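# step 3/5: fold
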Amino acid sequence: MLRRLMPDRVALIPGAAKGIGREIGLRLAARGWAVAIGYRTSGDDAESTRAAIEGRGGAAMTVRADVSRPEHCEELVRQVIDWRGQIDALINCAGPYHRVDLLAETPEGWREMFANNLDCLFYLSRLVAPGMIQRRWGRIIAFSMANADKIAAQPSLTAHYLAKVGVLGLVRSLAKALAKHNITVNAVSPGFVDTGSISPEEMATVAKNIPAGYIGACQDAAHAALYLISDEAAYVSGTSLTVSGAWGV
């Protein structure tokens, strides 16, 4: 029998079609949460995640939305509320990236990284916060990256990296603004995690630079998020959990 924790709660997870977001969605569903799966282009993967949740007796829905656009965020939140009446946790796993030399970056590419990694967190948080305030309970989880707190030079990843630096700042501001309403806001900051997008050869090369000696799995980041969502983390807010095998610290 599935262990039921925090029944009748609803999670909105943009980016839950695959990777870390999928892992979080599956694990929350196993604990009794209804899960709304937001996706932009990975429709087949989103339906696969929904089917996996429903196949285990859980409740799930999929919604296509480009969360870099505020009007899409509004429609996404509206559909989820129409479906289950509330949103108790926002876990924003959406966050594409590209590698490009800083001086070769285009205004469009620069704007895309901030819109898809930082702006969307603001858009969605301001939409879900009123309901959480009314119910006096809520969780907002964002994803940054290991070493973003150091504001280090990243000449081949500058736009993405600075957007993730901004995520940490926004998390702290949201945490302070919402703390009196019993709402926590935190970040998970992964290092290298195997989401299936790189070859075994590349992983072996990368692993040599990780003090732990290996690349993390999606479940490693999911465990961090699940803790921050739990009642055990009720007094944890405004922080970031680094999940990196000591890389970037």
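# step 4/5: annotate
The chain has a mean pLDDT of 94.
# step 5/5: archive (pending)
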